[in-house]
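FIELD: query
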Amino acid sequence: MEISGGAIRHAARSTAARRLQVKIIRIVAGLLVFVCSFSLFAQSNEIGVFLSQPHISSASLGELPPISADVDFDANSGYGISYNRYWSPHFSTDFAYHKLNADTTLMLNTPAGSSSFDAGDIDLTSISAIGQFHFGLGRFVPYVGAGVARVSGEANGPDDPTDPTSEVTSDDLETKTHFVANAGIDFRITPMIALTADAKYFSYDAIAKDDPLAEAITLHTYIYSAGVKLRF
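FIELD: result
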């Protein structure tokens, strides 16, 4: 029995068509899985709670040679909370609130030597909005970010730190908006829970609200936080 060339060509075309159909089905199925998983991830949210400490660089109060005055800051424990919205596997927007405190010490430097005086403390409140880029999707996920922080504060202490009998007062500090930089790393214990180490930096120009003669003091502030995040 002879098989015509037309029959052979028809069979070959049918086989090629079936292979093409199978390939198309596989591609479509793969795209559906990707889109579904991407959509599920894109809709994920995180809330976080943190123990936080502010590390503030010493600030100069000015010089009147041969005397200079500086303020040193000793960090106390504070706290933070955050909400993070993931728009893709690698990009999210983070909104965080931090309540911070540091003891302040006045340092007077004179030709006779240096003296320190208790200057009270400073409270800082930071509300930040940051865009974050996350590297990788494994157990360890480092990230970097940048955004803005709305910072306010309150300074508490004696009017004259060098006088032990000086009256203790409280001054509200003006609220300012500043650029904030961010970096950290998540360690995922489970797909829903992660331990986090986070750092933020901003430069806050602290100035008393109700003192027209006050001058701003620039506070270079780092917020170091450790906490836990819950994804839902």
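FIELD: remark
Residues 158 and 165 are 9 Å apart (CA to CA).
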